[in-house]
Structure formats: C-alpha cells, structure tokens
Amino acid sequence: MKIFWTREEENFMQEELSYKDTYEENSQECLQNDFQDNNEAWQIALDIIENEDEIVIISPIAWVDLDDIDVSLKDWVLIISWERRKPLELYLNGSILRVWENFWWKFYRTVILPENLDLDNIKAVLEKNILIIKIPKLKFLGKQINIEKKE
Predict the structure, then answer these.
(1) Considering the domain boundaries, does residue 10 fall inside one?
(2) Residue 21 domain-assigned?
(3) What is the pLDDT of residue 95?
(4) Can you give the CATH number for the domain in which 67 is found?
(5) 18 pLDDT exceeds 60?
(6) DSSP code string of 46-94
(7) In sequence order, which residues have a C-beta less than 8 Å from that of residue 67 and are 6 or more positions away?
(8) Which residues pair with 55 in a beta bridge?
(9) Is residue 26 part of a domain?
(10) Which residue, of 7, 13, 106, 116, has the fewest CB within 10 Å?
C-alpha cells in the first residue's frame, strides 16, 4: 500500500472516487440504457489476403453466436455484420460495472470485390473465433484465336 502521494495523484484519486460514486448511483440506469436498441454499428476489423488462387478475408470474432453473423453479397460488395450481445444475467441484478472495456453492439463492414472472383463458390468458416471467408479467383485459360481473312 502506498502511503505517500503527490498532489497530482491525490487530485486524481479524488476525481476517481467522485466518478465512482456518481457511476454507482447511476449504474443500473446506464446498463439499462446500454441494452436499448442502437442503430449505430462499429466497423469490423479484418485482414484481406490475396494469393494466386483466392482472396481470403479474416476477422476475429468473440462472444457472437453463429446465428448472429451475416455474410452476404450484393452487386460485387461483400457485406459482413454481426451483433455482440451482453450476457444480461451477468450485468444486471444489482451488479456494478467497475470497468467498461468490452464492445457490446452491432458490427458492420462492406468490402468492394474485384470482378475476377468466382462468387458462386464463396466459403465462410468460423474456426476458433475467427471468421474466414475464402473467395476463389476465376481461372481464364489461354486460347489461340484464329484470324479469318476476308477478300
């Protein structure tokens, strides 16, 4: 335990205690408001990897049920969305939220795809809380074209 404090540390501790008291008084109200529908969506973090045969899109996902993840395609735009919901049984019933660092809301991301992809064979897999979307590239075989001569 620290016995000696600088004046700045003392001021910070006073502010922290004041904030804590205010937050505890309003904790249940803050939690209830946080569970209301919110139309805002946060951008999904992802990596896009391209190799010779395919494009791979990778995004970490935690605390999301498979049924809450949507991957769809419209006009060469890949749309990825999900909603991470708070486990209410842990947050309510007299609980006090002491630290708030988790993100519990909707996530959304669109990716404009190039036209050289085989969109009929997109595959999406959720493995170890990582969403992996693989989109194969179209294969164009070379072909010799004969030229006709007209007289």
Answers:
(1) no
(2) no
(3) 77
(4) 2.60.40.790
(5) no
(6) -EEEE-SSEEEEEEE--S--GGGEEEEEETTEEEEEEE----HHHH-SS
(7) none
(8) 50, 135
(9) no
(10) 7
